[in-house]
Structure formats: structure tokens, C-alpha cells
Amino acid sequence: MDTSNPSAFVNAELLPNFIGKKVRAVVQVHQSDGGVAIGKSTDGSQLTVKGLPQVPAMNYIEVIGIAESNQLINAEIWTDFGNTFDTDSYNKLCQLANGEFRSLFL
Amino acid sequence: MFSGSQLDATAAFSGGGFMTTESTQINDSSSLPARSRETQGLVPVTVKQISEASQSGDEKSNFIINGVDVTNVTLVGMVFEKVDRNTDVSFVLDDGTGRIKSRRWVNEPFDTKEMEQIRDGMYVRVNGHLKSFQGVKQVVAFSIRPVMSFDEISFHFIDCIHNHLHAKAKVEGVTPAHPPSINSSQVSNGTQAPSSNPLYAQYSMDGLKDCDKLVLDYLNQHSDMSDDRGIHVNELARELKLPLEKIMLALKALGDDGLVYSTIDDNHYKQA
User: Is there a contact between B1 and B39 (Cβ–Cβ < 8 Å)?
Assistant: First the structure.
């Protein structure tokens, strides 16, 4: 059992709270050129992701990595969630997991 | 596990007399709370919750999460460090809140087949038995399936929160209001409330109307298009913590209004 290195569920609003720490976010990729991708967070803001390979535009990608700045995540692991994903539920989950129910997650 | 209560159901149906139903009520009220504490089913949890779970006794005893005994858990996370052996497959499950060791025994060809498709870095749903081995908690999995729709990830964690709230309400929220509400329900309904079932007392304060709504809501929430059988009356009684007699009355009222209908037999219902 190891809970020393969790990755927090974040949207763009919550990302600044985790600079230098491990986070996970779902981003709808608008533009990717193999290396740096720009996309939309689940709360509708722009996020930049480093370390992503070429992915299909408009697909939802989950990235797990280090929060480098307020809008930048350096991805270590990524998963293509496909082109349909309920971002509202995920966004709500981000809020709950960092708010009232933080003790279940971090 | 159902045999006892199914007998009660038949008694309630065939008899219809006051004596029969009353005895059903007594049976139900005494067995229900005990049963709901014993068998929790598959509890959705995070690895963080497991790491904080305490054991009530030695290594063989149950784990306690949210103040409730937990044996079997369901988790969603990523597979890492998968190692195939002759008799088992071991891996580490990372759900973002932590990592836990997991093991799947492979006895049947089915087990081998299910494990062949699992690879490192894959999102999976793991159902298993929570165990402590040499002081280290681990999950002995009996089912590992790749996550096909990634909304299942959001769902799982929301499910964990929901279960946490549900258990909290059960552990904390029932004792103080207990005696007065029993009295009021006895007066307002003129029926005998089973005193050992505090949740029933809470629900029954507004009379039958509330009960109808609970039944309808439950059928609505647990309706599955692929399952034609619907929900068994015993499940309704068990999940809603209401005596079978109340459930049957509610179903009859709802049936008369055309809101529910019985399916394969008189014990299974679906929402219309």
C-alpha cells in the first residue's frame, strides 16, 4: 500500500493549487503537434499539455503528470478517452474530490 | 440467503389475513438490520480509504470503512507491474489516490483468458476481496475487466462519495430521533412499526404516500432495460428498510395507478 504519491483530480481552476505536484485532468485536445498540445479543460479554460504524442483532435485525453504552472501540465501518462466523455460529471468530481470529500482522495 | 424471506413473501400473498402478515412483519423487522450489517455486497472504495481502514480484530477479521464492515470491494484504476505466474497474476492497482497490491488466482481457462487482455497502463474495474497478508493490505480479485467507457471512472469515484455519505447517515443519523418518531408513526398510521428498524421509522412519518414514492424512485433508479424481470419485492424491502407488508401495499397502490407492473411473477416489479 502506498498513498504517498497521489494524483489529484483537477480542472483549470484547481490546477494552481498543485504546482509541482502530481495531477490528473481531462483535456479536449484542440491542437497537437506531437510534443505540446493545447486543449480545453473540463471547466472550459485553456490548458497546455507537454509530452503528449500526436492525438486525434477534439478527442478527450486524460493526462497524469506534474502541474508546472497555472495552465501547464507535463504529462507522464496519458489515456485517450475517445470523442465522447461527460465533462460535466468529471468537473463536478474534481470539485468534490478537492472540497467536501477530500479525505477520500488525498 | 433469500430463502427465508421468500417464504415470508408467499405467506403474505396467500394469507392476506391479519395474523399472517403480522408474523411476517415481526420476522422482517428482526432479521433486516442484522442482514444489512452482515452483507454489504460490493463496496465502492478508493485506495486511500482502504489504507485508512482498520481491522476489528486479528488478520482474519473484517475491515471497517466509513464505520461499516467491508469484505468485498470494487475499485477502478490503472494496472501496473503485472506479473504472470502459473497459478496467479499479481499487479499493482493505482487509482490516483494510492496504490494497492492485487492478486488474481488463475484456476480455470476463463481466468487465464480474462487476465490475458489486461496490460500495464490499462484502466480496469477490479472486484475483489479485501485481505491482510503479513500486515499488508491487498485485494484478492475475482474479476478484472478493462474499462470500456471512461465515464465509468467518474462514476466510480462519485459512487465512492455516495457510499461514504450513505454509510455516514446510517452510522450517525439514526439514534437520537428514534423513540419519538416510532411513537408518532404508530399514532398516525395505526400500524405496528417494527421498533428495531430505526430507518423505517424515519420514512414512515409521512404515511404511505412517502413509501409509494420511495418504491417508485427505487424502481426507477434500478431499472435495467436488459433485465425483464424487474426488482424482487424482498430487494425493495431490504434496500428501503421497510417491512414487506408496506412494500406490497405501496406496489398495489402504484399498480392501481398504472405506475408499476408485475413481471415474471407477483414478486417482481418494474416501473411502467
Answer: yes
